[in-house]
């Protein structure tokens, strides 16, 4: 008697397993169909859009596209569309030229549009004490100038930049060894 019950139990498990696998396949097919429908639905007028000296993919939503611009953080990318009065979920390829110009102006002059000062990346500039927000090539040039100033005044950070060593106090015994001799040489016997 025990053998028959065991066989019945095994057959039930096999049936459950088959049902589970069929359900899994069906769900996978539904996921694939949903992905294909999403790809078809995304229609943009322009494939590539030029904003703030950066070429952006037109299929991206406004917030995500702004993140690709050097100097724009997550918080600022969320604030710019609201300051400009544009839906952040809108695809950047569907925006008009006037809207793109407005977005670029908001990114370059965020204080003028009511974006708080703590979201900016150049507060109390050491040269004139004013607050700016730098993006793209302006940011790159300014950072290079700051490093050159540190090197010129021969401060600790400037010297570390010159030597190509870590500037912010990291330990260097086992890391930052690229380009230098590594390890201890053994004495020949």
**Biggest sheet statistics:** 2 strands, antiparallel
CATH architecture of the domain at 48-119: Orthogonal Bundle
Structural class: mainly alpha
Proportion of residues in β-strands: under 5%
Pick out the low-confidence regions: none
Cross-sheet strand order for the largest sheet: 1-2
**Main CATH class of the domain at 48-119:** Mainly Alpha
Summarize this structure briefly.
With 189 residues, this protein is mostly helical.
Could you characterize what this model shows?
49% of the residues lie in helices and 4% in strands. The protein is flat, with a radius of gyration of 29 Å. It contains 6 helices and 2 strands. The mean pLDDT is 85. It has a domain at 48-119: Helicase, Ruva Protein, domain 3 (Orthogonal Bundle). The chain has a two-stranded antiparallel ribbon. A hairpin with a 2-residue loop joins strand 1 and strand 2. Helix 3 packs across helix 4 and helix 5 (137-152) crosses helix 6. By secondary structure, it is mainly alpha-helical. It has helices at 2-41, 62-66, 74-84, 97-108, 137-152, 156-163, and strands spanning 48-51, 54-57.
